[in-house]
């Protein structure tokens, strides 16, 4: 399974002003594609901090690392400077990125979203990429995404505005996802147990998990209450969708039998 890491940068998130929904979105998209997110981290908007985190990430050699946030026109948008420092590549004006930014702002000006269409230094900042990087079309906002291949790892830098990030991932990264994840398949099913206390079936979950290599079984804890029921998810990844489904269904059958034998009601969701 290709491994993926996420490095999100944003003082506004660390201050508690903004909730980081971007990392959650990326985890869901990568998982659905058959990849495996092994680490997410949130760091401050400082070049040295971003660079240090990326160097550590590159040492682990994931297939893909997303950086999130810090691609905009203001002085505190420093992620690409951090990528440049981490990889030893200078920032330089990229003609294709400049074209994308220029066209986007001309469109924004025509719609009345911005006061003028002309490029200025702040807008040019969004077109300065680490040497060897390529811009990725942003269907929504002004700052393009950025793709850089560094050794065995692909670094994809995404803007922090959720609508922009989601649009780039869903509309501009399909080829990259196919390249990295191929035909990898992920599937997940769930059981609902007429029980609140996950400790009552922890032993059963452990036994079935031990007997089901390649399958991940997880009970989802809930607050105690009279109407609460326990949800147990069973998931697996693999190159063969049929085999993945077979693994999951076998584990579900074992869970149903064992939980039922313990005296608890159980249904498939």
Tell me about this structure:
With 269 residues, the chain is an alpha/beta fold. The chain has 2 domains: 3-181, MoaB/Mog-like domain (Molybdenum Cofactor Biosythetic Enzyme, Chain A, 3-Layer(aba) Sandwich), CATH 3.40.980.10; 185-268, 2-Layer Sandwich (Alpha-Beta Plaits). Helix content is 41%, strand content 25%. It has 10 helices and 12 strands. The protein has helices at 11-14, 22-33, 47-60, 79-87, 95-111, 121-125, 162-172, 174-181, 202-210, 241-261, and strands at 3-9, 36-43, 64-68, 91-93, 128-130, 134-136, 145-150, 153-158, 185-193, 215-220, 230-238, 266-268. The strands form 3 sheets. Strands 2-1-3-8-7-6 form a 6-stranded mixed beta sheet, with helices on both faces. A hairpin with an 8-residue loop joins strand 6 (134-136) and strand 7 (145-150). Helix 2 (22-33) packs parallel to helix 7 (162-172) and helix 3 packs across helix 4.
How is the secondary structure organized here?
Blueprint: E1 3-9, H1 11-14, H2 22-33, E2 36-43, H3 47-60, E3 64-68, H4 79-87, E4 91-93, H5 95-111, H6 121-125, E5 128-130, E6 134-136, E7 145-150, E8 153-158, H7 162-172, H8 174-181, E9 185-193, H9 202-210, E10 215-220, E11 230-238, H10 241-261, E12 266-268
Helix pairs in contact: 2-7, 3-4, 9-10
The fraction of residues assigned to DSSP E strands is 25-35%
Task: State mean pLDDT (0 to 100 scale).
Answer: 93
> What is the assigned CATH homologous superfamily of the largest domain?
MoaB/Mog-like domain
CATH topology of the largest domain: Molybdenum Cofactor Biosythetic Enzyme, Chain A
Gyration radius, in Å? 22 Å
CATH architecture of the largest domain: 3-Layer(aba) Sandwich
What class do helices, strands and sheet pairing give?
A: alpha/beta
Strands ordered across the widest β-sheet: 2-1-3-8-7-6
Low-confidence parts, pLDDT < 50 over ≥5 residues? Answer: none
Oligomer: single chain
Which overall shape is indicated by the principal axes computed on the Cα atoms? elongated
Largest sheet: 6 strands, mixed
């Amino acid at each position: 399974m290709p491994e993926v890491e996420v490095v999100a940068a944003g003082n506004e998130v660390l201050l508690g002003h903004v909730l980081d929904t971007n990392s959650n979105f990326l985890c869901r998209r990568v998982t659905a594609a058959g990849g495996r997110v092994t680490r997410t981290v949130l760091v401050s908007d400082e070049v040295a901090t971003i660079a240090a985190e990326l160097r550590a990430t590159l040492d682990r050699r994931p297939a893909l690392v997303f950086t999130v946030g810090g691609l905009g026109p203001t002085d505190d948008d420093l992620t690409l400077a951090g990528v440049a420092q981490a990889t030893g590549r200078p920032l330089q004006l990229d003609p294709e990125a400049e074209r994308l930014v220029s066209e986007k702002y001309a469109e924004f000006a025509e719609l009345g979203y911005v006061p003028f269409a002309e490029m200025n230094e702040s807008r040019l900042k969004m077109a300065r990429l680490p040497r060897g990087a390529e811009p990725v079309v942003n269907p929504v906002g002004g700052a393009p995404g950025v793709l850089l291949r560094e050794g065995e790892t692909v670094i994809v830098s995404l803007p922090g505005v959720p609508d922009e990030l989601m649009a780039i991932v869903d509309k501009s990264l399909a080829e990259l996802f196919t390249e990295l994840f191929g035909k990898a398949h992920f599937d997940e099913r769930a059981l609902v147990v007429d029980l609140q206390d996950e400790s009552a079936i922890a032993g059963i979950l452990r036994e079935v998990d031990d007997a089901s290599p390649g399958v991940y079984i997880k009970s989802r804890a809930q607050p105690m209450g009279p109407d609460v029921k326990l949800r147990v998810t069973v998931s697996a990844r693999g190159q063969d969708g049929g085999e993945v489904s077979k693994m999951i269904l076998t584990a579900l059958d074992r869970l149903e039998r064992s939980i039922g034998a313990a005296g608890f009601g159980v249904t498939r969701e």
